[in-house]
Design a protein that fits this description.
Strand content: 35-45%
Oligomer: single chain
Order of helices and strands: HEEEEHEEEEEEEE
Structural class: alpha+beta
Distance between the termini: 47 Å
Shape: elongated
Largest sheet: 4 strands, antiparallel
Helix content: 10-25%
CATH architecture of the largest domain: Beta Barrel
Number of strands: 12
CATH topology of the largest domain: OB fold (Dihydrolipoamide Acetyltransferase, E2P)
Number of helices: 2
C-alpha cells in the first residue's frame, strides 16, 4: 500500500488551522485518522511532525522531575483501571512493588499490562485515563 504523504500533511494542517483534536478521512479502502497525538492509517500508527515537537517539549519537562520514571512500552491509549468504573491500578501515595501492573496501554484492541520497573511510592501520575501515549512517554513517577 502506498501512503499519500500529501494527504496526511494536509490533514495535519487542518488540525491546526481549525483548532481540531481529531480528523478522519476515508476514501475507498483507505482510512486515515489524524489526531494531535498520532496519525493512524489502516491500523498503522505514525507520529505527526507537529505532535512530535510538542512531545519533545513535554518529555524534557518530565525528565527534569526527580524520581523513578515508569514509561510506556508501546504507542496506544493508557487506562488507569482494568475496565470503566473499576478500581484504579495505582493512585498517588500508593506503595507498589516491581512487576505490579500500574496501567494498561491498549493498542490495536489488545490490552497490554504495564508493570512497574521498580519498588516505590507513586509520586505522580503523568497521563489522564484514556489519553493517547507514545513509546517511551512517562506514565508514572515513583519516589
Amino acid at each position: 500500500m502506498k501512503i499519500n504523504k500529501k494527504i496526511i500533511k494536509e490533514l495535519s494542517d487542518y488540525l491546526e488551522e481549525f483548532n481540531l483534536t481529531e480528523l478522519e478521512y476515508t476514501e475507498k479502502d483507505t482510512k486515515i485518522k489524524v489526531s494531535k497525538n498520532n496519525i493512524s492509517v489502516n491500523n498503522q500508527n505514525f507520529t505527526s511532525p507537529k505532535s512530535n515537537a510538542s512531545n519533545l517539549n513535554n518529555n524534557s519537562s518530565e525528565n527534569s522531575k526527580t524520581g523513578i520514571e515508569v514509561k510506556s512500552p508501546i504507542i496506544g491509549t493508557a487506562y488507569h483501571a482494568p475496565e470503566p468504573g473499576a478500581k484504579k491500578f495505582v493512585e498517588v501515595g500508593k506503595k507498589i512493588k516491581k512487576g505490579d501492573t500500574v496501567m494498561i496501554v491498549e493498542a490495536m484492541k489488545t490490552m497490554n499490562h504495564v508493570p512497574s520497573t521498580a519498588d516505590g511510592v507513586v509520586k505522580e501520575i503523568c497521563v489522564e485515563d484514556g489519553q493517547p501515549v507514545e513509546f517511551g512517554q512517562n506514565l508514572l513517577i515513583l519516589d
